[in-house]
Design brief:
The protein is α/β, with parallel strands linked by helices. It is built from eight helices and eleven strands. α7 runs parallel beside α8. The longest helix is centred in the middle third of the chain and has 19 residues.
Length: 256
């Protein structure tokens, strides 16, 4: 079905991350939908390991400059963009010196999880939403991949519930067997600042518990792995959204 506006939000994508199931699948899905005549855009975090020189990232001044308040602190939103190597497909990178300059993804050099992983995910989710609005581009489908993106439907249905911008947008969530990492115990207080409460994950905040919560806020859930680990499989089974088993890039259009 061509002529759809499809937004992929992901924490991983080839070639910016190599040798991951999620990164490879998102890359293939985006290219397939782009080649089929759809208006496709991709958003992801600008992790410090992503070389700006190698991938020719450049800042988009007209989209940058906004501040997002996280835990009562103003954090500048920087938007960078690049074309997927060899393709006319734009990838937007959410950036911030405080949250994404570091070279590691979620752990420090000693293997300890970053205490602000929760704030980084909130900043990413709100940064994507605000940037899409600033682009004046209304997606028909938002396809979420990776634990950071799972906060987007939660925010859309709570913090942004009175905003009509995404009223006609359908949300697809792909669920992957990601590493489950605990989040800071202050997560409940940080989200309460945005008037978000009542999530099951807040009593035991972690990467996959947020994914579990997000399943209640989306239209379709797709298995990103053929077999999900037990906790995800259980949440998948309980969710009220439409469900799909694992689909490769050639078949994903059936969901849209």
């Amino acid at each position: 079905m061509p002529n759809q506006k499809i937004l992929y939000v992901t924490t991983e994508m080839f070639p910016y991350q190599e040798d991951t199931n999620m990164g490879s699948l998102v890359h293939k899905m985006a290219l397939k939908m782009h080649a089929s005549g759809n208006d496709v855009r991709v958003f992801m975090p600008r992790f410090g390991q992503i070389s700006e020189r190698k991938f020719q990232l450049h800042e988009v001044i007209r989209l940058s400059g906004m501040n997002i308040i996280i835990n009562d602190l103003d954090q500048p939103l920087i938007i960078k963009v690049a074309s997927l190597p060899g393709e006319r497909l734009q990838v937007y990178f959410i950036d911030n010196e405080e949250y994404f300059k570091r070279k590691q993804y979620y752990h420090d050099d000693e293997g300890k999880a970053f205490e602000d992983n929760n704030e980084r995910a909130i900043f990413f989710a709100r940064g994507v939403i605000e940037t899409i609005k600033k682009l004046n581009w209304v997606p028909d489908v938002i396809h979420l991949n990776g634990w950071m993106s799972s906060l987007i439907p939660i925010y859309l249905k709570t913090y942004y519930k009175d905003d009509t911008y995404f009223n006609d947008t359908k949300i697809v969530l792909s669920v992957y067997n990601e590493d489950d990492i605990e989040l800071n115990s202050n997560t409940k207080e940080v989200l309460a600042f945005d008037n978000i409460s009542g999530l099951e994950s807040l009593d035991n905040p972690s990467f996959l518990n947020f994914v579990n919560d997000s399943m209640q806020y989306v239209d379709v859930i797709v298995k990103g792995n053929e077999f999900l680990e037990e906790k995800l499989e259980e949440a998948y089974g309980k969710a009220n959204a439409e469900k799909s088993d694992y689909l490769n890039a050639d078949s994903i259009a059936t969901v849209y």
